[in-house]
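Board notes (copied after class):
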Amino acid sequence: MKQFVVIGCGRFGSSVAKTLCKLGYDVLAIDKDPDKVQEIAEYVTHAVQADANDENALRTIGIRNFDVAVVTIGSDIQASIMGTLLVQELGIKKVISKAQNELHAKVLYKIGAHKVIFPERDMGIRVAHNLVSSNILDVIEFAPDYSIIEVVAKEEWADKSLKELKLPNEFGVSVMAIKSGDDLNISPYAEDIIRRGDTLIVIGDNNSLKKLEQE
């Protein structure tokens, strides 16, 4: 089972650490603020007060034994960059870092981050989509020009097959999955029927998805 170290126990870092622990993974939370360490301690496997920019401290903790590092230091860009660099150099196989902006992200990728996340920006995208379209439940930016959306089936789609709806032709989007209650149909067939209340997971370029949202 993978072991995770979360560096930075602000709101986002704490949420990541708690969720990973709830999912059954071993999680070490690190922050230089003793109050934050105390707050997170009961929710994770281990919590340690340490400076993520102190290589000796990270070695002493045994950071190299973890599979994934999530560096969520947000307010101090220099600390974020140094923390990312150190955990990568100490041998962690996968490093995920939080960035404030595109320039910050470029630097993080240059020094070895495997993935960079923008939680505030991504949440802003999701909220904006929800504001403009009542049937859009969630949005994930898949690439600069492509996204995946979770959309409630429109009334006029009910009791029709995917073949009948012709979503690729009408909107230029593809249905990846259909959720009916607790059932998830991954890679549905053209003959599969959409029921009232179903949720569709759809992928497409952003212009096509915008057309779908506005219909």
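Comment from the instructor: The mean pLDDT is 87. The chain has two domains: 3-117, 122-214.
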